[in-house]
Amino acid sequence: MAKDENAAKDENVAAAASAPKKKKWIIIIIAVVIAIVIGVSAALVLLGGKKKHGKADDVSEDAHAETIIVPFEEKFTVNLHAEDGSNHFMQVPKLELEVADEKVAKQIEEKKSKVSDRISSTLRGKTVKEMLEPGSDIKLKEELRNVVNETLGIRDAKKGVREVILPASFIVQ
């Protein structure tokens, strides 16, 4: 019986020793799973996660998705009208057109001389007083955009020239 008692004690000791080992493994597995969940969550947050697209987001992304800049290499220099009869000129050293797509860019290239002529005509129609007013650059860009779209036969600016960009300031002397 002593042997049976010793054997029972050994089994209890072995069972008691394996219980903490099992608990350790369970704790380690749970810790690893938690670390993975935290890591994946952090990665999603840092990388932007899933984008939710509403109509406004779709429109703004579509509006800028195919934006193309068409540079005009030509420098525009025109005489301005002055009330006092003095001679003044305006120079636009560089002009770029932001267009909706490649089709519009191709149209501009095909009609570049006509577009250039319309831009020059618009600039020649300006007065010194008009060009020295605050906000004259914004008005000029809008007018040039409308003139170019009109020349191309495009009624909707979203489908044609979206913006006229003057990377170098125009000069009035």
Strand content: 15-25%
State the order of secondary-structure elements, H for helix, E for strand. Answer: HHEEEEHHHHEE
Main sheet specs? 3 strands, antiparallel
Provide the helix percentage: 55-70%
Beta strand count: 6
Radius of gyration: 36 Å
The CATH class label of the largest domain is: Alpha Beta
CATH topology of the largest domain: Tetrahydropterin Synthase, Chain A
Question: What's the number of helices?
Answer: 6
Q: End-to-end distance, in Å? A: 119 Å
Task: Describe, in plain words, how this protein is organized in 3D.
The chain has 173 residues and is of the alpha+beta class. The chain folds into two domains: 2-50; 66-172, Tetrahydropterin Synthase, Chain A. The chain contains six helices and six strands, in the order H-H-E-E-E-E-H-H-H-H-E-E. A three-stranded antiparallel sheet has the order 1-4-5. A hairpin with a 7-residue loop joins strand 2 and strand 3. Helix 4 (112-124) runs antiparallel to helix 6.
